[in-house]
Amino acid sequence: MSQAPTPAAAPAKRPAGRGGRNLELSDELKAYKGVWVFIEHDRGHVHSVSWELIGEARKLADTLGCPVSAILLGGPDEPLEKFAAEAFTFGADKAYIMKDPVLKGYRNEPFTKGMTDLVNKYQPEIFLLGATSMGRDLAGSVATTLLTGLTADCTELKIDPTSKALAATRPTFGGSLYCTIMTLAYRPQMATVRPRVMLMPRADASRTGEITYDTLGMIETDIVTKMLDFIADANSNKINLPYADVIVSGGKGLKNPENFKLVFELARVLGGEVGSTRPCVQAGWVEADRQVGQTGKTVRPKLYIAAGISGAIQHRVGCEAADVIVAINTDVNAPIFEFAHYGIVGNAMQVLPALTQAFAAHLALRSRQVA
Amino acid sequence: MHIVVCIKQVPDSAQIRVHPVTNTIMRQGVPAIVNPYDLFSLEEALRLKDKFGGKVTMLCMGPPQAEEALRKCISFGADDAVLVTDRAFAGADTLATSYALTAGVRQIAKEQAVDIVFTGKQTIDGDTAQVGPGIAKRMGLQLLTYVSRIVEVDLEKRSITVERRAEGGVQVLKTSLPCLITMLENTNEMRFANLPAMIHAAAYPVRKWSKEDAGIEDLSKIGLKGSPTVVSKVFGPTPRSEKVEMLDLESSSLRDVSLNLIQKIFTRHPTLESDLLMKEMT
Ligand SMILES: Cc1cc2nc3c(=O)[nH]c(=O)nc-3n(C[C@H](O)[C@H](O)[C@H](O)COP(=O)(O)OP(=O)(O)OC[C@H]3O[C@@H](n4cnc5c(N)ncnc54)[C@H](O)[C@@H]3O)c2cc1C
């Protein structure tokens, strides 16, 4: 029953209020002000989704006329001040820092306690987190502890002009529908957003802000779960689809895993990454990290080439933010042609090599001209 | 060992169609299935039972027909099933759902103490990944989400070690029982149900609990009332106003079509070409 709406008839115009629910914000909760962003970092790096969220938070805060705050929890030897300074350049006004040895490396218990304490103390109106494995784990725990609303995997965040509440839009039913969700009578209003759904804001090096420090008040022996080890993914096969500029994706239309080499070749010529669809991942043709879509990665490349991909809605939601989409499909009626910019009706096994050759020749020629 | 696995019955979203005019889900004829992510958790629970003995109890909050989903789980090897079903649960968001399921787990634990609660990583209709963490917090259980492998369980010391998928790597975490686990997808494969198991499941008396049976008295915490989030609008994806430009392979050669496409791409996205050239040179 979770957040999936169950529309029996046409979407109701009335903004809930069903069953005499109290949808008015209590006076006590009216004091909640400001937009918070959880800054996710691990082993010295901030996850870019946090900066994307700062950019989004800035827009919300400007509409509401309130500040944006970056929230940083971590160990004493972690460069949280440096991260805060970076958050300021992306649009944050304040940073709340909590440093404690038990906050080094993410664990649910101390982070939930730290976050919940900060929210209770400073009372933000809106609280945004990345829909990553860390962000989702934390958001669900914090929202339940605070007994407030949380909207997952939003694709659009706006302020509702009448209620001034956060109107969070998210795909539902595997992307076949969208729904806009509001948390009217509870604070903070929490939402998670997947990486690359929002645009990366521009940094302004002249921006600065104010840092506030808080303490956690928990010691290691208070914490039940221990981290024994962290096994980092081998860097050699790191697939970074969400941040690739060019993605060449192959689908079931490639017929067999061997034909995927045609996709890899075009991607190599373009200096891009290889993406794919769920059935190909399930068949073991490519690694799971290459799946684009609702249950895979959201991507935002400049160029997305889809070969032998039908363009099912679950795939579409992951790639439609690409600047240019090219589709190669034998079936002129394939749904991919409903959202591609350029389409070629043809056999991918013939079109891909031709494209690879043409791109290689073109780029070689141009680089000679430029040099 | 007593394990509770929470599942949800969902419409098979691959087969869902949206009514073009009213923008509503057309459920007729769409099969209802066990949320696929839940099966990875169920299989892991069954493996623990194979190893340590004990019992796997299924729990679901949902309409009466969700009984079918629980029966399916019985056919895979779960021992018992409870459906918490009551009109008062309708309209529950994740917070209210976690409350109802927590009540169910507590009630089940009165019959026999629970060592591990499993939920799916997320559902395929709601996709929120919030119910598992919600139950863990409400019950004060240690939370282990996105678990890729259960490394070790020590029933004597009441400890469990797991590998958990994080961004950029795997955390090896050790915690104490009882705990709540959500399994990552594709970490195992659900076993087959054999014919006797299916026959047993078909006749299995799934227990149906009303809100009172589940020990819920406070109506303000369940269903629509207990849900802080409000769905204010439902709509279909906006069709793109721009139409696709088709490049014809019938009247021109593959090579010409390719060159033509490249020109069009770079004209449409002027910085892309220089980006690619820069990349080539570095
Ligand atoms: C809960 C849920 C979540 C999902 N999540 C995702 C997700 O994240 N990502 C995802 O991709 N899918 C997802 N799916 C699956 C999705 O619904 C589709 O099944 C899938 O995207 C289809 O993959 P495909 O296009 O590769 O294969 P198909 O649907 O089999 O399409 C193959 C296409 O190739 C074309 N073709 C055949 N031969 C050739 C040829 N020689 N040259 C060129 N074209 C050819 C065909 O005309 C066809 O259009 C999900 C489904 C569910 C139920």
UniProtKB/TrEMBL annotation, chain A:
Residues 1-14 have a biased composition (Low complexity). CDD domains: ETF_alpha. InterPro entries: DHS-like_NAD/FAD-binding_dom (IPR029035), ETF_a/b_N (IPR014730), ETF_a/FixB (IPR001308), ETF_alpha_N (IPR033947), ETF_asu_C (IPR014731), ETF_asu_C_CS (IPR018206), Rossmann-like_a/b/a_fold (IPR014729). One of its GO terms (biological process) is fatty acid beta-oxidation using acyl-CoA dehydrogenase. Keywords: Electron transport, FAD, Flavoprotein, Transport. Pfam families: ETF, ETF_alpha. FAD binds at residues 277-278, 291-295, 308-315, 329. Residues 35-227 form the Electron transfer flavoprotein alpha/beta-subunit N-terminal domain. Residues 1-21 are annotated as: Disordered. Binds 1 FAD per dimer. PROSITE patterns: ETF_ALPHA. GO terms for molecular function: electron transfer activity; flavin adenine dinucleotide binding. Its cofactor is FAD. Belongs to the ETF alpha-subunit/FixB family. This is Electron transfer flavoprotein beta-subunit. It comes from Polaromonas naphthalenivorans (strain CJ2).
TrEMBL record, chain B:
The keyword Cytoplasm does not apply. Pfam families: ETF. Residues 22-218 form the Electron transfer flavoprotein alpha/beta-subunit N-terminal domain. GO terms for molecular function: electron transfer activity. Keywords: Electron transport, Transport. PANTHER family: ELECTRON TRANSFER FLAVOPROTEIN BETA-SUBUNIT, PROTEIN FIXA. Belongs to the ETF beta-subunit/FixA family. This is Protein FixA.
